[in-house]
Design brief:
histidinol dehydrogenase activity; Rossmann fold; alpha/beta; 5-stranded parallel sheet; 15% strand; EC 1.1.1.23; 6-stranded parallel sheet; 427 residues
């Protein structure tokens, strides 16, 4: 991993990646699904996942056998994580509200859940039961009545048992063993078997991300997720083994994942670099982690912690760890981060799996303007406006003036005709 002064590191992310070939492939897949429905989904699943499916829906017996394929420790941890995640998201609930006025007007906002949501759960080489929890639970807490899950099968048409157990524990009753862009198309357009949804959430590979981008507008989506990233701000008190381990926790995700340590201590920087070499050789996913560390990893040395925070805010990481002596004193200085982890024991996997906050986070610098997945992603809001007669008489001429300034005479007339009928003055 490169150790260099922060001033020599290019902080601006490269946005020039050419995905023309992938976009064309995604458009072709979506067109097939839209035109041919289930038949296209089956053909595409056979082509990409090598699975021949008679029934797209995950069969009941697959859930029943899944528990025998996972450990009791996994089930126990899963159940406790579900409780933690549910408690956290319960605290995000919003309620409808109304503001009555003395003049008879009533203004307010109605908050109601979306009707039908589709959740994509990655499978394949890196099945993610935790993604099911992080997407389904906030939808359930928000009150979404219909939640449908899609997840890719293996060549035998089977779904990873960890995902199946997660879906069973969450009470999901509608789930399909399809993945890739074809799953996104099925959720967006609908097929003979799968009814269309109002919103699609959940991460996936580049084809899933591009498919979500392509159907946005017909349906809502949560975000376009890029490669995962982590940034650790560390001072001389940090344990280099902890820092290195946390950097590798993201590097093993994807060869394009970004792991950065920012520190004012050159001594710590060198010790972290040494720890990385020692730890990376022990990882089962060593090749992926090495590619990520070699390609996007860096240890940046700053003149002080103030500069370290400035660098972090510029990068706007998905995960930001404050591994410094007094982390809470620096919390208010962090402006851009998907999730902030305070202190040496708040390692990133605590948030990924168990603590409660959502692990679906803005990536690739989008924490500058985006937020983690939350209850807000599963509700919609309607404004309520009830104007009384006295309120319209008192404010009608002002509304007319604003409308006429914009050249919208029909807008002005809609108010003027009421003032004339109700005895208001018209200039």
């Amino acid at each position: 991993m490169k150790v260099l002064p922060a001033a020599e590191y290019r902080l601006d992310r490269d946005q020039t990646e050419n995905l023309t070939e992938q976009r064309e492939a995604v458009q072709s897949i979506l067109s097939e699904v839209r035109a041919k429905g289930d038949a296209a989904v089956r053909d595409l699943t056979k082509r990409f996942d090598r699975a021949e499916l008679d029934d797209l829906r995950i069969p009941d017996e697959m859930y029943e056998s899944a528990y025998a394929q996972v450990t009791p420790a996994f089930v126990e941890a899963l159940r406790e994580a579900i409780v933690n995640i549910r408690v956290y998201h319960e605290a995000q609930k919003r309620t409808s509200w109304m503001l009555p006025s003395a003049d008879g007007s009533l203004l307010g906002q109605i908050v109601r859940p979306l009707k039908r949501v589709g959740v994509y759960v990655p499978g394949g080489l890196a099945p993610l039961p935790s993604t099911a929890l992080m997407n389904v639970i906030p939808a359930q807490v928000a009150g979404v009545p219909e939640i449908v899950v899609t997840t890719p099968p293996d060549a035998e048409g089977r779904v990873h048992p960890g995902i199946l157990v997660a879906l069973k524990e969450l009470g999901i009753t509608e789930a399909y063993r399809i993945g890739g862009a074809q799953a996104i198309g099925a959720l967006a357009y609908g097929t003979e078997t799968i009814r269309p949804v109002d919103k699609i959430t959940g991460p996936g590979n580049v084809y899933v991300a591009l498919a979500k981008q392509a159907v946005y507008g017909l349906v809502a989506i949560d975000m376009i997720a890029g490669p995962s990233d982590i940034l650790v701000i560390a001072d001389e008190t940090a344990d280099p083994d902890y820092v290195a381990a946390d950097l590798l926790s993201q590097a093993e995700h994807d060869p394009m994942a970004q792991s950065i340590c920012v520190t004012p201590s050159h001594d710590l920087a060198m010790r972290v670099a040494t720890a990385l070499v020692e730890q990376i050789g022990k990882l089962p996913r060593r090749e992926i982690a090495e590619a990520a560390i070699r390609g996007q990893g860096a240890i940046l040395v700053t003149k002080d912690l103030d500069e370290a925070v400035e660098v972090a805010n510029r990068i706007a990481p998905e995960h930001l760890e404050l591994m410094v002596a007094q982390p809470t004193e620096w919390l208010g200085r962090i402006e851009n981060a998907g999730a902030i982890f305070l202190g040496p024991y708040s390692t990133e996997p605590v948030g990924d799996y168990f603590a409660g906050p959502n692990h679906t986070l803005p990536t690739y610098g989008t924490a500058r303007f985006s937020s983690p997945l939350s209850l807000d992603d599963f509700v919609k809001k309607s404004s309520v406006i009830q104007y009384g007669k006295q309120a319209l008489l008192a404010n009608g001429e002002k509304i007319i003036a604003l409308a006429e300034t914009e050249g919208l005479d029909a807008h002005a007339n809609a108010v003027r005709i009421r003032l004339q009928k109700e005895g208001g003055s018209i200039q």
